[in-house]
Design a protein that fits this description.
- This protein is an alpha+beta fold.
- It contains 3 helices and 4 strands.
- The radius of gyration is 11 Å and the shape is globular.
Amino acid sequence: MNKITIRKIKNTEKFIQMVQSSRGNVFLKLPNETYCDLKQNTDALQMLRMINPEEIWLDLFLTDDQDSYNFMAYMVGAGA
C-alpha cells in the first residue's frame, strides 16, 4: 500500500469523485488507529464535505499504485 497525506482539499467534489473512481481501495487512517475504506463507507466520504478543507490532515492508504499518481496530481494543483 502507498501512503498519501492530504493537508488541504482544494475541491471537495473532485476529491470525492477521485476516491470513488479509484482502481483500488482508499483507506483513511482514523485517530483510533483503525482504517476506514472510503470507497465502501459512503457516510465517511460524505463527512468530508462538512470539514474545513483548509485545516485537515488525512492519512490515506492506497492499494493500487496507479491511484497514487492521480492523488499526487490532485495535490500538486490539478484538484483546484
